[in-house]
Specification:
Layout (H helix, E strand, L loop, with lengths): L4 E7 L6 H14 L4 E7 L6 H11 L3 E5 L6 H10 L5 E5 L10 H5 L7 E6 L6 H18 L10 E5 H4 L12 H7 L4 E6 L13 H21 L10
Parallel strand pairs: 1-2, 1-4, 2-3, 5-7
Antiparallel strand pairs: 4-6, 5-6
């Protein structure tokens, strides 16, 4: 049976998490409702992450990787993962595993009727400052995009690959994936998923990134929406 679903896992200095990632995703593959493989995208890690990734992929035929020459950021890692996906569906999860891989099955159960299904972190296990800044950032983004999504920062998503590959790529795109599907006249849905405290490693974004970055990106999105080319071919000869 050929693979149907690729999970993209961006990695940046996550050596303390990767063995747990291997275990949790290996367990998920056994229960996945779609034939699943894993694609690590090493975003120029400076720790021991690449060595661990190569060991994991050597021991697990369902795991593959690509490595950046230098750090390019989360959006670039997601974009590269989408580009290198060859299955009909592509997903995304953070390597800190604050969301549960088994919840992919909740999203996959809905994807036939939609073009993107995203998680909404219920009972978030983050600090007050992180939760508040995310709430404000989501409110700003929602006002600009009208995408109706409550938690676009949730690192658990499933997208039809044909739509994922047509997303215009820019820094900050990971906050706008649902809006980018709407630009293609696609259908989107959100579903509550589990959320857990970070066990190891460090968060890569602070208050500045969560508030000012999304605000500036909203203006970029409005420009892109105005300029976006969207057409459908009715006949070929």
């Amino acid at each position: 049976m050929k693979y149907q679903f690729t999970i993209v896992v961006p990695v940046y200095n996550e050596e303390d998490n990767l063995k747990r990632v291997e275990k949790e995703l290996s367990n998920y593959i056994k229960i996945a409702i779609k034939k699943t493989k894993i694609l690590f995208v090493n975003d120029g890690s400076k720790d021991n992450s690449q060595k661990l990734i190569e060991e994991i992929c050597l021991q697990n035929p369902d795991f593959t990787f690509i490595e950046f020459q230098y750090n390019c950021g989360l959006s670039a890692a997601i974009a590269a993962g989408f580009k290198h996906t060859d299955t009909e569906l592509v997903g995304y999860i953070d390597s800190d595993l604050q969301t549960a891989p088994e919840d992919f099955n909740l999203l996959l159960a809905e994807i036939e009727e939609y073009d993107l299904v995203t998680g909404v972190r219920s009972n978030r296990q983050d600090s007050f400052v992180k939760n508040m800044s995310s709430t404000i950032a989501n409110g700003i983004r929602r006002a600009f995009t009208n995408d109706g999504m409550d938690d676009t920062g949730c690192p658990l998503k499933v997208i039809k690959t044909e739509y994922a590959k047509n997303i215009p790529m820019f820094k900050g795109l990971h906050r706008f994936l649902p809006a980018m599907i709407l630009l293609q006249n696609g259908k989107i849905k959100q579903i509550p998923v589990q959320h857990f405290p970070r066990i190891a490693g460090e968060a890569k974004y602070g208050l500045w990134n969560r508030l000012l970055g999304p605000l500036l990106d909203c203006f970029a999105y409005l420009w892109m929406k105005k300029k976006y080319l969207n057409y459908q071919i009715s006949k070929k000869g």
